[in-house]
Design goal:
Strand 4 (126-130), helix 5 and strand 5 form a beta-alpha-beta unit. The protein has a single domain, classed as Ribonucleoside hydrolase-like (Inosine-uridine Nucleoside N-ribohydrolase, Chain A, Alpha-Beta Complex), CATH 3.90.245.10. Helix content is 35%, strand content 19%. The chain contains eleven helices and twelve strands. The protein has helices spanning 3-9, 30-39, 63-80, 108-116, 135-143, 169-172, 175-183, 204-210, 216-229, 244-247, 288-301, and strands at 17-23, 45-52, 90-91, 126-130, 151-156, 188-191, 201-203, 238-240, 255-261, 264-265, 271-272, 279-286. The model has no long low-confidence stretch (mean pLDDT 95). The strands form three sheets. The protein has an eight-stranded mixed beta sheet with strand order 3-2-1-4-5-6-12-9. The protein has a two-stranded antiparallel ribbon with strand order 7-8. Strands 10-11 form a two-stranded antiparallel ribbon. By secondary structure, the chain is an alpha/beta fold. The radius of gyration is 18 Å and the shape is globular.
């Protein structure tokens, strides 16, 4: 891909675009918001597939268990969105993380993405929105390296380039996968977590005002946050709903970004600032008010 084409594909898109979503939906409570937001943004996004990503934390017994629970949660959210017709678009992802930077992990999700990408081109790319460990996408790129010319990867992953480390949940789960994607030549849009996206948070009073009791979907999303993240020792709390921001790359101008070199994460928990890679779109600020307004409009006010 020429630098001119790369820069063109890193521009903020307008209008309707095809996209897939790769999500560890059961990991916590924000993927559900992001998935519903994407499904309800069908004036801007044609959803071609939804992939369940692996994760391992207190909500799973292994990466495979996390992926299976995420698959089930995706189906649940689609039901709440009134979109049972989209369930055939959901694919199970990797059962493990990459063992090395050269070997793909076969899964229905990775294989589907590798084949789907061939329907697109540099002039008409498929947007791959990733809000979990990037294992499925890295595997697809290893299966079909030419997809780097036909896709744009939008990833909520890593912390800001000025943060003290790269030990962000999505990135630290599979550094090998992050390195594969960042080195593949695919255009990358990075939404860093700490230092950038941590601005996009919601509080209990806001959830009560905007979501609770409005409809079954909004009620489920809000109660998930309130049940799992309310601190009984603190009367005032907020929860970042990180993953919504990545979907917003295709829904509107809710942030600022700059074009700068990719920084490759190393295995010591830092960015390798001595060897910057190709240019990427690096989001550096979120306009919480505008994005929250759009989220509420689509999840609460919009009919299924």
């Amino acid at each position: 891909m020429t630098e001119k084409q790369l820069l063109n594909n890193l521009e903020l898109p307008e209008g309707m675009h095809d996209a897939v979503l790769d999500t560890d939906t059961y990991n916590e409570i924000d993927d559900q918001f992001a998935l519903a937001y994407m499904v309800r943004s069908n004036d801007r996004i044609r959803t071609r597939a939804i992939y369940a990503a692996p994760f391992y934390n207190k909500n799973s017994s292994s990466p495979e268990d996390g992926m299976e629970k995420s698959y089930a949660e995706i189906l649940k959210v689609l039901d709440l969105c009134g979109r049972n017709d989209m369930k055939d678009l959901v694919f199970k992802g990797s059962k493990t993380y990459l063992l090395d930077e050269n070997t793909a992990v076969e899964s229905p999700a990775a294989r589907h993405l590798a084949e789907l990408a061939d329907e697109y081109s540099a002039d008409d790319p498929l947007y791959v929105i990733v809000i979990g460990a990037i294992t499925n996408v890295a595997s697809a790129l290893l299966i079909n390296p030419s997809m780097a010319e036909k896709c744009v990867v939008v990833w909520l992953g890593g912390h800001s380039h000025d943060w003290r480390d790269t030990k962000e949940f999505n990135m630290v789960q599979d550094i090998a996968a992050a390195r594969v994607v960042f080195s593949s030549g695919v255009p990358v849009v990075q939404f860093p977590c700490m230092g950038v996206v941590d601005n996009f948070s919601v509080s209990e009073p806001e959830l009560n005002e905007w979501f609770i009791g409005k409809n079954p979907l909004a009620d489920y999303l809000a109660r998930n946050v309130m049940d799992h993240y309310k601190n009984p020792k603190c009367i005032s709390w907020t929860k970042v709903i990180w993953d919504v921001t990545a979907v917003s790359w295709l829904t509107g101008k809710f942030f600022t970004y700059k074009i700068k070199p990719i920084l490759l994460p190393n295995y010591e928990g830092c960015y390798d600032k001595e060897a910057p890679g190709q240019l990427c779109a690096y989001v550096n600020n979120i306009n919480k008010a505008k994005l929250m307004e759009d989220l509420i409009k689509r999840l609460v006010e919009q009919e299924a």
